[in-house]
Amino acid sequence: MVVSEQLDAFFTEKMKDYPTQRSFLVPMLLYTQDELGYLSDEAIAYVAQKVNLDELEIRNVISYYSMLTTKPRGRYNVQVCRNICCMLRGSDEIGAHVKQRLGIAHKGTTADGMFSFEEVECIGACGWAPAMQVNYDFHENLTAGRVDEILDQYRSKSSL
Amino acid sequence: MADLVSHPDEVRVVSKRFGQGAADLDRYLAFDGYKAVQKALSLGFDGIIKEVKESNLRGRGGAGFPTGMKWSFVPKESAKPKYVLCNGDESEPGTCKDRLILEHDPHSVIEGVVIGGLSIKAKVGYIYIRGEYRYLVDIMRKAIADAYARGFLGKNIFGSGVDFDVYWHTGAGAYEVGEESALMESLEGKRGVPRIRPPFPAVVGLWGGPTIINNVETLASVPHIILGGGQWFAELGTPKNGGTRLFCLSGHVNRPGVYELPLGYNLRKMIDEVAGGVWKGHKLKAVTPGGSSTPVLTADEVDVGMDFDQLMKAGSMLGSGGVVVLDDQTCMVKYAQRIMMFYQHESCGWCIPCREGTDWLKKTLNRFHAGGGVKKDIDNIQYLAENMLGRTFCPLGDAAAMPTISIVKKFRKEFEDHLEGRPCPYEKGVVEQLPVLA
Ligand SMILES: Cc1cc2nc3c(=O)[nH]c(=O)nc-3n(C[C@H](O)[C@H](O)[C@H](O)COP(=O)(O)O)c2cc1C
Ligand code: FES
C-alpha cells in the first residue's frame, strides 16, 4: 500500500461519518500528503481507488486547494504570510530575509531537500503579525533575528 | 501559540474561558459546560429559536444575518436529513478570532452546533476547520472524542431520547471555501465552486438536505444565550445588534490582538485606548473595519459605533471583525494592490466578472504602483470594480470590488502621486520590479 496501514484504517473509519464515499476526499488528500511529502501518481491512484472515483477527478480536486501539491517539497515548508496585516508590519522584509537565508525563490526547495519557501495568504495570525508557518507550526511576531533562530532550530532538529 | 491580550473595557462572554484550560472537558464542565445543551433540550426547538431571536445575535462570519431568523427558515419536516455546518474556514485577511475560540474553548463550539441542530431537528453536525489550522483540528478531534466518551454526543444525549452526532472536517487551503455554498461543496469532497441560490442552504444544503451554516463565533455565542437568556445578550449590544464580538485589532497599533467588546463600541476608542494607539507616534490614515473585503474608512470617519447598522450607515461593513489600522506612512495604492492580489489568487475562476475582473485589476494596480500608471487607469480601476459589484456568482467579487472602490474614491490623490513614472512616494527601500506600460 502507498500509505501506512494505520492511515488507511483511519480513512476507512472516518469515511463512515459521511453519507457519500467521496466526502472525506479533501482531508484524505492532505493527510496522505502529510505522510508522503507530496501527492505522487501512486498516491493519487490509491486515493482514487479508496473513494471510488477516476484519477482525473482526484487531480481536479487537488488543483483547487493551495496546500496540496503533486511535486516534492523540502522537509520543512516555510510559509511566510504576505497579506495585509503582515505586510503592514514588515512581511516583505521577512520574506526577503528567508529567501536570502535559504537561497531559494518562491516555491523553491534547497538543494539538500531540507527547506522549501512559499509566500502564502492570510494564515489567521493577523494580530500577531508578521507571521509564518513551518509545516503546521505557527511562528508569530517575527523579526529577521527570530527567523534565523527558528530556521536554525529546524535545521538542528533534523540532524538529530 | 497566539498570545492573549486584555483590556478593562472588555466584556468577556465568548472569550470568558480563554486561558482557563477549558479545552479539557472537566475544566469546561467546571465553567458551566454542557449545561446549555441540557437547558436547550428542555426548551424545545421553538424555545431555542425564541431565545436566539430575542438575543439579536447576528452572524459573525461576515454578512451579519440574524441567526434566529436563519434557523427559522428551515422547514419543519424534511424527507432528507438536516444538518448543521460550522464554518471554521477563517481566511478573511484581518481575521484571527475563530482560531482562539477553537483553541481555548472547543466544547462551546460543539455545544453551539448541538443546540443549533436541536432547533431545526437535525441529528448531525459538521465542524469544518481550515487546513492550515491543523493543531486546532487535533484539539477539536480530542474534544469531540471526549464528549462522546461521556455520552454528551451520540445516542440519547443526556437521557433525552435525542441522538446527535458531531464530526470534524478539514480543508486544504482555499479562502473561497469559506463562502457557505462552496463550503458545502468542499465538505462533499469537491472543488470549492459556489452553488447558485436560490435554493438557499436552509432548504437545500448538504447532500440536498436542509442545512444551517454558521460561523464558529456565532455558534460559540449560542450556549451563553441559552444560559443567560436572549434578552440579557441583546442588552449587551445596541438595538438589533446583540452581544459582544471578538474584534481582531491588527496593523499599525501598539497593542494588536483579539479583544471582546460590546457591539457598538466606538472605533476611535478601540484604536486609541484598547489597542494602545497608532504605533511609533504616527498619525492614523485609514482603517479597514471588518476584514479586507470591507470599504476603508478615513481617519475622519472613525467616530463610529462598531455594529452592523452604524457601519453600514458609514458606508462600510462590520464584516468578520478584523480591524486593520493603517498609519500615515502607508501607501494606499500598495494596500489596494495587495488586497487585489489576494482576491485574484483566491477567485475560483468559475464566473467571468470575478475571474477576469480581479485579474485585470491586479495587473493594473501592480503596474500602477510600479510607476507605470496612466491617468485614465484611475477611473478605469473604479469603473471595473463598480461593474463587478453584484454581478458575480458569489460575493467574492464584491469582496474584491468594495475595498478597491473605497480606496480610489477616498485616496485618489495618492494614485495621482504615482503618475508619470514617479516612484512610490511612500515606499522606502523596497523597489519592485514590475513591467511598466510603454
Ligand atoms: C468569499 C467568502 C468567504 C467567506 N469566508 C468565510 C469564513 O472564512 N468564515 C465564515 O464564517 N464565513 C465566511 N463567509 C461567510 C459565509 O458565506 C456565511 O455567510 C457564514 O458562514 C454564515 O455564518 P454566520 O451567519 O454565522 O455569519 C465567507 C463569504 C464569502 C463570500
Ligand atoms: S494577514 Fe498575515 S496572518 Fe492574516
Concise structural overview:
Helices cover 46% and strands 11% of the residues of chain A. Chain A contains seven helices and four strands, in the order H-H-H-H-E-H-H-E-E-E-H.
SSE blueprint and pairings:
The complex is a heterodimer of chains A (160) and B (438).
Chain A: H1 5-14, H2 25-36, H3 41-51, H4 55-62, E1 76-81, H5 84-88, H6 91-102, E2 115-120, E3 132-134, E4 137-139, H7 144-158
Parallel strand pairs in A: 1-2
Antiparallel strand pairs in A: 1-3, 3-4
Helix pairs in contact in A: 2-3, 3-4
Chain B: H1 25-30, H2 35-54, H3 67-72, E1 83-88, H4 98-104, H5 106-120, E2 124-129, H6 134-149, E3 165-170, H7 180-187, E4 211-215, H8 216-228, H9 230-236, E5 244-251, E6 257-262, H10 267-274, E7 284-288, E8 297-298, H11 308-313, E9 322-327, H12 332-346, H13 352-372, H14 375-388, H15 396-410, H16 412-416
Parallel strand pairs in B: 1-2, 1-4, 2-3, 5-9
Antiparallel strand pairs in B: 5-6, 7-8, 7-9
Helix pairs in contact in B: 2-5, 2-8, 2-9, 4-5, 5-8, 8-9, 12-13, 12-15, 13-14, 13-15, 14-15
The structure holds flavin mononucleotide and FE2/S2 (inorganic) cluster (FES).
